[in-house]
Amino acid sequence: MLGLVTHPAYDIPLPDGHRFPATKFSRLMAIMARDGLLDGFDQHHPEPAAGADLAAVHCPDYIDAVAAGTLSARALRVLGLHWSDVLRNRSFLAPNGTLATARLALAGGLACHAAGGTHHAHYAYGAGYCVFNDLAYAARRLVDEGAARQVLIFDCDVHQGDGTARMLSGDDRIFTCSLHCRTNYPARRAVSDLDI
Predict the structure, then answer these.
(1) What is the per-residue pLDDT across 16-38, written as a single tens digit (0 to 9) for each?
(2) pTM, two decimal places
(3) What is the DSSP secondary-structure string of the chain?
């Protein structure tokens, strides 16, 4: 049975009209349940990532600030989200969700994650609604642990995966490819291994 990684704590409360549809994760699961699609999946719920594990790709001081809820007003403005305990909890869950999904895919050939793709998070700060970079985290963990020799991150979001490209620049075990709109966020582009 195909693995599906999800968690009820993936949703975050945001004001009405916010650009980021923060309830899309539970809405996706509700639609799948309504349409009888969940019967074909073996559901998994991730545990929160440990700060020491996230330090494989993120600055320990930044991880501590997220954990303690002490991000500055400027950092929250760049992130684009208001601080809450729900945001903190979700931020530590989703990276391990992507890692769990990758491990399930390695074991069974294919798996799905109902969240993830936080490709604007950088080493020492979050941006564009992305707190921790789940893609860089999962890829680095897999190669560091020997579960994979090489990883391709094929990012086909309309926005460039700038955080992923910068965080993994120089790591020849992980190839970053970003397909994105020419004129869109972020204004300052990174250099992926391949940008289209």
Answers:
(1) 777 888 788 899 999 999 999 99
(2) 0.94
(3) -EEEE--GGG-----TT-SS-TTHHHHHHHHHHHTTGGGGEEEE-PPPPPHHHHTTTS-HHHHHHHHHT---HHHHHHHTS---HHHHHHHHHHHHHHHHHHHHHHHHS-EEESS---TT--SS--BTTBSS-HHHHHHHHHHHTTS-S-EEEEE-SSS--HHHHHHHTT-TTEEEEE---SS-S-SS----SEE-
